[in-house]
Amino acid sequence: FRTPGSEATGRQRLRQHAAALSIRRPWGVMVSGPGLVDEGTGKILVCPNLHWCERADLPAAFHEVFRAPVRLIQESRALALAEVGTRVSAGDFLLVDFGDGVGGSIVVGQRPYEGNVPATGEIGHTPIAGNGRQCGCGNRGCLETLIAEPWLVRSLAEATGDNEGTFAHVCRAALGPELPQFLVEALAAAPGCIAGILNVCGLKRVVLSGIIRDLGPRAADHLIAAIRRAAMWSRFDTVEVELVQRRRARGLTIAGIQRVIMPTDWAAT
Hints:
It contains eleven helices and nine strands. It has helices spanning 7-21, 52-55, 58-66, 75-86, 144-147, 149-160, 167-174, 181-201, 217-230, 248-261, 263-268, and strands at residues 29-33, 36-38, 43-46, 70-74, 93-98, 102-108, 111-112, 205-210, 240-243.
């Protein structure tokens, strides 16, 4: 179910859906969360689009319902794990997911990269020159304030003067004879951020998931071509850019095996 706007509603919905599952004794519970996730302590440090998650004890809430070990994983890392499990021989890549925000995960040696601080993959909070929008993270000009779903809806409203529009209206506009200017500008903000990561990390493969697929083939092709032009490696060889569907459940399953069922093996490999 879609994450509610408050902790109280979230706990209520969790209890309702847990009862419908009828799972009496689960081995464990895996929870993916957006923002800066400290997976070691089970805390969401910053969640720009769902600030109540910063104050909530999510592991305790899930443990109260399921009475089983609970592990928290950053949602983009879960999506990246799913791609590793789907394409074992795919090599290293950068995953970028577009939704209510924009997140990413670098996969090296079949494992999502872990930095020294729990702030890896926050590509959506890269400041874009000329963008003055206030982001939920507290900064101004972040990439996700241009290309994340709610912000595309806002851009449509600013372009048309219609405040009743939804993301479905954005998608319909993207399927027109030409891409609308607000969408062209939004898509133009992402390639430089993505190419910067490819250039620094020496990667030549990008996996895109989320709402980019919903915007239709013209918008997707526009973004893919721009990423390839921006990446340094395109001067020498093909930069692979692929659209995939989200496989969050698969990623959480893999994470559960690694962190709950065989935690020793996960830590050692």
